[in-house]
Amino acid sequence: MIAHGSTSPSLQLTHEGRLKHFLTLDGLDRAMLTAILDTADSFIEVGERTIKKVPLLRGRTVVNLFFESSTRTRSTFELAAKRLSADVLNLDINTSATSKGESLSDTLLNLEAMASDMFVVRHSQSGAPHFIAETVTPGVAIINAGDGRHAHPTQAMLDMLTIRQHKGGFEGLKVAVVGDILHSRVARSQIRALNTLGVAEVRVIAPATLLPRDIESLGCKVEYDMSHGMRDLDVVIMLRLQLERMEGALLPSEREFYRLYGLNQEKLSLAKPDCIVMHPGPINRGVEIESEVADGSQSVILNQVTNGIAVRMAVMSMAMSGQVSERVKARPAEVRT
Amino acid sequence: MIAHGSTSPSLQLTHEGRLKHFLTLDGLDRAMLTAILDTADSFIEVGERTIKKVPLLRGRTVVNLFFESSTRTRSTFELAAKRLSADVLNLDINTSATSKGESLSDTLLNLEAMASDMFVVRHSQSGAPHFIAETVTPGVAIINAGDGRHAHPTQAMLDMLTIRQHKGGFEGLKVAVVGDILHSRVARSQIRALNTLGVAEVRVIAPATLLPRDIESLGCKVEYDMSHGMRDLDVVIMLRLQLERMEGALLPSEREFYRLYGLNQEKLSLAKPDCIVMHPGPINRGVEIESEVADGSQSVILNQVTNGIAVRMAVMSMAMSGQVSERVKARPAEVRT
Amino acid sequence: MIAHGSTSPSLQLTHEGRLKHFLTLDGLDRAMLTAILDTADSFIEVGERTIKKVPLLRGRTVVNLFFESSTRTRSTFELAAKRLSADVLNLDINTSATSKGESLSDTLLNLEAMASDMFVVRHSQSGAPHFIAETVTPGVAIINAGDGRHAHPTQAMLDMLTIRQHKGGFEGLKVAVVGDILHSRVARSQIRALNTLGVAEVRVIAPATLLPRDIESLGCKVEYDMSHGMRDLDVVIMLRLQLERMEGALLPSEREFYRLYGLNQEKLSLAKPDCIVMHPGPINRGVEIESEVADGSQSVILNQVTNGIAVRMAVMSMAMSGQVSERVKARPAEVRT
């Protein structure tokens, strides 16, 4: 129903190359990713202040449109929006207007007509945020908060921010993404971002049954054996085992998965001694990561959470600013009947 | 259980004739309706600003009391209140205090004691907002957000604002309200407002089974045949077919209804060429309106949504101001034990 | 699972004896309770202003963590936080992250990492707020909004504020707490507060089946007969009959309970003529209190509600301020990996 494929870069960028939506990392170059990280860095400092507020989105209306429920992700966007001084409206779309038989487009056009400035969209269907940005409400800044298996670009960017904070940059780094690549909405975004930012090597470590067919075309090395894959790593990114997304017997058992691909202190010792451990959360302790590692000195998992707010503040303020600059230029053509 | 009938004008007006609640259009004269429209006009401009905020309700507490769930209406009031800088508390009363056996009155008195300034009330029983304003918490500004089949006065006023914007005024206009008049909570309010504002002619177009008995006493002409009723119209207001409110076989079928009373391009061509098309939303495409018309150049449906925020800001700020003026005068008698 | 017993005073106080969490009245001396009441008094005036807002928590993030649903209590904390200018995040934890198998500790550590400043915690297990303050997130101010049968300290403090307002102080007062002491989370807190503040006599009036064994050790006199217990009272505090908490036949029937322990005008006439009547709400009219008394001139039940906002503003602002003072001192040791 919702088409997606290659996204034209012009969909999320203004004519001057500024961000106006944030849908995917596809088509964003190293300069843009670096600009997002630099902006996020400036917001890290805001989170440490007594008054954690900046007026960048003051008087703006941000609508959290969650077609798929995710309290955790919604909370981070809600906090990010409030710290930018925006007014926030939370809509759980499953239970609201669409139940009266209204089409998705009509719901969105109505929200736009209420002078909404930004939609944060979470949807189980890949491509839904693109569809909205391209077809329905191009004048509202669309932020992708996770669509199907396709992308979760703010998660990938908060990972990049965490790596840069701890490693000083990306050059020469060896980074592995471990676990259920197939069902992950973040693994693709991560691999793309790591390559764009110029790491030395990206590895994926997973059983063949949890790897998409085209995985190597994304620019990464495949390892089926974790002991081998962990060698010389600077960064290991564990994925959450999406137990709820698995259909059928793709893997023997949780216990078997943990034995082969779970991260424990022993496997971690095969990486570089200063290798950092990342995980998008929520953690399945004892399924994909051992508590000793999750809570250990190499874990930066809670830093990722802190960085998540900063990255969301960054893309929200940048996309809003891009929309405004485009609106100023497009004024004569903007009038709607 | 809840009585309603003729509302005394003094219920929603102060001694000086200022609005202090907004319950119904009954008893509001042309000067008052015009004042609401003028105030709303000034808020239209606020919605177009970068910073869509005015400080009129700053530090005020607005409670959305929805005894009947309506995400769409609640969202418009929530946005209106936030743009007036109020603090907003959303209470879905079905699931909260009343489940502990507390009476409606006690719940409301408690909310009043928390220093609430305004209740936005949606209730399935006609007259509930009047009852609250008259009996329970007269010192809290009550805004009717739809009660039973009785009234939905902010919807009617946003319709009037939309007509005035597009037609410059009301004199000489011929306006029709089409569809399920019987189950509509807005049709009565619309007919009254149109007559008060001095249009030339109000028509209702509907099958006999969807018309209340006393309809002509409201001051309108009845047409059963749409082809005839559309002639010379300046404004056609389609009603939503309240499929969920219908009991029994009042109409043959959706398809039959659409054939007879659905608005398509052909029927619209019988009206004046600049006739505008209105609908309160959410639209049932292909049930009461054809997509070509809903999305066409004569449709002002999305303008209505935009105007809905402005009208709600207007009545909320006016009623708050009326309450304050009354409180200042009534101070000595106000002390409660 | 969650341990609790005697709480070390140092858990909720800084080294200088300032409040940094608000978990229980145990260990708080008369000076501290008086400081809370004085601070609350200053906020009463804020609730009477047109602009009911002070900037004390501006830019702070307050998370309402309700592991047990209570719309009424949540609303009072939400309003209190908003009037202190905080950003508020409401999390109903039953339906969110924990359903993905995440541990309570991980959920809390994540919220802390989002730079949350305060958790308002409601939990069905006694000791949960203490556990969080002691073990999980000591750097986040924890406010107890009711834990199991253990405590509901803001409720007790709003009762004290109401007594002081109406009686001028505590010396010489005779106060009774009537009803289901056994299942009450507030009775213990009330008895402790009354004794700390120096009333002349605290009585509990209840059937033996609704009294905990150790009740007299809290410092109160037990009365089984209400006619006797009401004599010479200055203050009578009725408890809500927690019908939903009762298991088995602890009392013969609601009607029998009402006959013996329900407060009616006749029983009230046995107390001093200016005895005030209190109840935490929501009221079960005709179960533990007669409508004539609840709505009568001696009732201060709605004053309690108003005072509830002021007391919550007081403990929230005091605990925040205590946290800040501790953080400044502890800075070198605060760095987390």
Report on this structure.
3 copies of one chain form a homotrimer. Chain A is built from 12 helices and 9 strands. In chain A, the strands form 2 sheets. In chain A, strands 7-6-5-8-9 form a 5-stranded parallel β-sheet. Chain A has a 4-stranded parallel β-sheet with strand order 2-1-3-4, with helices on both faces. Chain A is an alpha/beta fold. Chain A folds into 2 domains: 9-152 and 306-334, Rossmann fold, CATH 3.40.50.1370; 153-302, 3-Layer(aba) Sandwich (Rossmann fold), CATH 3.40.50. Mean pLDDT of chain A is 89; it is low at 1-5 and 333-337. Chain A binds chain B through residues 58-61, 87, 89, 91, 95-97, 100-103, 106-107, 109-115, 324, 336-337, and chain B through 47-53, 71-72, 75-76, 78-79, 82-83, 243-244, 281-285, 297, 299, 302-303, 305-306, 308-309.
Strand and helix layout:
The structure is a homotrimer of 337-residue chains.
Chain A: H1 9-12, H2 30-48, E1 61-66, H3 71-83, E2 87-92, H4 104-113, E3 118-123, H5 128-136, E4 141-147, H6 153-167, E5 174-178, H7 187-196, E6 201-205, E7 221-223, H8 226-229, E8 235-238, H9 254-261, H10 265-268, E9 276-278, H11 291-294, H12 301-334
Parallel strand pairs in A: 1-2, 1-3, 3-4, 5-6, 5-8, 6-7, 8-9
Helix pairs in contact in A: 2-6, 2-12, 3-12, 6-7, 6-12
Oligomer: homotrimer
> Unreliable segments of chain A (pLDDT under 50, ≥5 consecutive)?
1-5, 333-337
Using a beta-carbon cutoff below 8 angstroms, give the protein chain pair with the largest interface and the number of residues from each chain. A-B, 26 and 30 residues
Shape of chain A: globular
CATH superfamily of the largest domain in chain A: Aspartate/ornithine carbamoyltransferase
Helix percentage of chain A? 25-40%
**CATH level 1 name of the largest domain in chain A:** Alpha Beta
Largest sheet of chain A: 5 strands, parallel
CA-based gyration radius of chain A? 20 Å
Instruction: Give the SSE string of chain A.
Output: HHEHEHEHEHEHEEHEHHEHH
| Share of β-strand residues of chain A | 5-15%
Q: Give the strand line-up of the largest sheet of chain A.
A: 7-6-5-8-9
The DSSP helix count of chain A reads: 12
Give the CA-CA distance, first to last residue of chain A.
27 Å
Which structural category fits the helices and strands of chain A? alpha/beta
CATH architecture descriptor text of the largest domain in chain A? 3-Layer(aba) Sandwich
The residue-averaged pLDDT of chain A reads: 89
Work out the count of structural domains of chain A.
2
Query: CATH topology of the largest domain in chain A, which one?
Result: Rossmann fold
Give me the count of strands of chain A.
Answer: 9
